[in-house]
Amino acid sequence: MFILEGLYESVYNARWHYVMEVSDDTEMGMKVEKGKPKQSWTYKKVGYTLEKDDAVQQSGEAPPRLMVLTSDKGWPYTLSVLNGCGNDLCVNSEVERAWQIVKGDLTEWFSNFDLTLNPSPMPHVLVGTAGIGKSMAAGSYLLYQLLHYDVEKLQVVVHCFGITMYVFDKNTKTVTKYVGEITSIVVLGGLWQRGVKGYIIYDVTEKGTPPDTGLAPSSGWGMIVVSSPNLDNYDEWETQAKASQIIMNCPDEMDVKAMCAWTKRGLDTDEQAGYWKKVEERMKKFGPIPRHIFDEKSYKDRLAAINGALLAIKLTDVGEYFALRGSKLWYSEDPSHKLVKVVREITKKGVELFLNASISADIGFRIADRLEKKMGAKDLLLLILGSRGALASRALEQLGLRVFMYGELVCALVEELKELRPPERNEAQDSVLKVNHQGHPTRTVGLAGLEGGVTRTAMEYRVLYIPKVENFPLVDGFFFMESPRRTLVGLQMTTAGDHHTIPSTVRQFTECLATYFEGWDELSRDMSWEMIYIKNAFSKKILKWQRCDVVNPNNETDAEKEIVAFWNKEVHQYQFMLTRDFLSKITEMRIQ
Prior knowledge:
The protein is an alpha/beta fold. Helices cover about 35% and strands about 20% of the residues. The chain contains 21 helices and 23 strands. Helix 20 (about 560-570) links the parallel strand 22 (about 530-535) and strand 23. The longest helix is centred in the N-terminal third of the chain and has 18 residues, at about 95-110.
């Protein structure tokens, strides 16, 4: 047992800063401010959980991009890891969301007078990709907020790291450190016997070491377990405690940019921008994982590990990468963990679960390339288009586009294409693929992002071009056919019942094409367009022509009018909807 002098006051009185997005002439567009922001993020109820409510934020004062709390003596997490990670705690909207859920459950429990039905607040498991700040950011922020929670209701907050336990006593304003699982259970039991109520934050420090199911007192105590998605870390405890999951998404690009602005706040804006560009390039390679993108050595080590994991991909990995609930993959020490991230999904019943997605667009492309080479065409199509929820994964989109490289699949697929025509167009037109299925693509080429410039190349027919970046405009992939007419075929994998677009998106797409391909202005003359919307049996069917609408009809520009006219006249749309009959047909096919 050790008394840690000054730690309670340091954590309780942590200093606030925040980072705001600003419109200025600098490349960063970020400003660091002292104090607590006047406006934080707003959340709305979605089923049994919460999501950020951007609509409210657009109508009021802008919230910060990032909040930072600094404890001069550190946090329990920084005292428990071998390599210290500093005293600054970065809070984004995902971290705040976790606290809002916990706070809501505490409020509901304390207003419940029939404690025989719910003797303790709702227990939780906080799950997220390794390295995004669950322990340092979310765990420490929960500690801070719980210390500020009404002392009449919660007298103690406990932060555990495996067998090491820090007990924050809100009455005596002290922190006591204990080591040993049995010691921890005895100490907590003694507090419970004295009528003390508290909350436990348990961080799984070693893989496969879940908390003891008897750690938390039987009543009056809340508990949250912080873990990577490895089910060995929490599955038994979650089942016994009937805990609810909180899925924490990775920080987004602007969150990371704000972290850069905070980290380099003492430098001029040009130096900040130079640091941000370096971090941005790393992030494109393997995603927004703070543990690996800010440090040069960690970045290089991670890059080598990812390349090794890509080389180690096996055909048997397919089901593990793209399972709907993504959990099977995380039971093992398989190196493929390094290629995927956890993404929150809320079911129709309003419950959180997680999906696996490729950790970056670049890695998604590389995963798809490796798997496509190891799978038969039939298996590829059945996996991508026959699995419920599969289209939610970007990597599955990447794989799904590749079915257009198999001639026999294309022959069967084009027979199922349904044309979507605008009301004023009466005459039907078959897809160029139906007329000339032999013109399908035979290989893939990945398109890198435009940042930093690209080298223009010659446009090639029968090549499936797939963007290796997130949020590419208009399409998920495309290819060109020369016969029976020169045609750009855009592919869009979607679960939505509508997929309308706007002129600016079409313009961005054509600008990208002009940047990628030599002589695009001349090539694009008299070139027709087709859009194929690919959907599975569990998604909403598209029932009508997908429009290109002007955002503000009262202020339509000539350029917008021209794009809309082109869309209505030159673009032909088709939908492929997977059906049971089609699945049966593919199953019977003999494809090598």
